[in-house]
Amino acid sequence: MSREDFSYSEESLEKNLDVFISYRRSNGSQLASLLKVHLELRDYTVFLDVVGLEAGKFDNNLLQSIRSSKNFILVCTAGAMDRCEGDIDQKDWIHKEIACALNSQCNIIPVFDNFVMP
Question: Any catalytic annotation for residue 97?
Fold first, then answer.
């Protein structure tokens, strides 16, 4: 995946979501769901991939949701970034999501839960 995959229309894209939540499915789904509930109770619009995607092109829909978000919450649980290290081709989904958020100028907000940097 190249840099161009993330940057085709960020300037013209309306940021209509308040928050996109990124997490490692193996151990971050409960915290991600809890964050979503608490943010929605405070009237934030939140995208969490378990409930936010329609059937179809998963990859493009997910990245489009990041591009249209003002804030990107990165749930950092134990081992969540291990697959990102040395992932030059961005095959890991969390790595892809972080790169897209950076290129889309989202505010990145890490939430730590037993996280150790690899």
Answer: yes
